[in-house]
Amino acid sequence: MPETGHCFRGILSRVILIDVDGREHDLSSWLDDESALAEALGWALKPEGLCRGKTCVPLLGRSVLDALGLLLAVDEEAGVAAVAPSAEAHHREAATGKAPPLDLQDVDGNPVSFDDYSGQKRVLVTWASWCGCRHELGGWQALQDELADANVRLFSVALDNDPEESRPWIEAANPSYPVAVDTAHVTAERYGITNVPSVVWVDEDDRIVKPPTIAPGDDQFVDFTRISSEQHHDALRRWAREGVLPDSANAESQHRTDAEQLALAERRIAAHLQRRGDTEGARRHLAAAQDLAPWDWTVRRGGIAMTGGDPFLGEEFTSFWEEWDASGRPGYTPTT
Known about the structure:
This protein is an alpha+beta fold.
């Protein structure tokens, strides 16, 4: 099984480190060099601590990873490690109420940023090609057209493992709103999204005014979702035109655990190994991630798609769905 923990000094003589943005860093000659590790993570190691711009974090005898609140997953044999924020770090960021930055790419690799639409009401819509919601981009387009005069901007993100998985659905819908493809699942990590289609509302002052809830773009799959799209759309119309927020806007954000956060790092390693052609290695890390976060669909159903399984009718998905449904559909909160 993959190794996990906070410290990786001395574990490997060479490692590819995957950071929280999905970027890969070759630490082949820097494993015992905390300064190089800090630099790879976007910080500078100085006498006063870890610094980035005007922000400094004192070490106080801690390692770089501990000081930054990062959890680590490691595959010693493959020579790859990945980090994810600890639950404490995640909740500390969420407690600010500010929408985390999202600088992503579209299906053709062009940069697209959620922050470009600051100053408007923003609706962050997440979906994936392994979900029936891949058919709903047209439904979101109709809503964008309707609410354009209310200073509302939709921003869509596909949580897929490869842009080509999303391409047919994006090209078929040809939406006017931005569509990003987040292969590193940064959006899910920063916004606490564990299932799709999940939607987050952000106001003109960049505050999250409604945390993630399940909100289909239309009713093609209402028999499965048991959630009417109009339930969300009507609430969105009231917020857009009257400034009235639904009851679900007052819901507390899901309290995540270190295990669930570490699952995100395990998924990063799995995706890296799959890109290298190591499907068995990817499956090992997905199994570790699934044990850590058993109800995270972006890990479980997304992992089935990642390794070439059938995320719609395959036995692995059917078994997972039956277990999840019998457990009361955890994490499947609708807009109310």
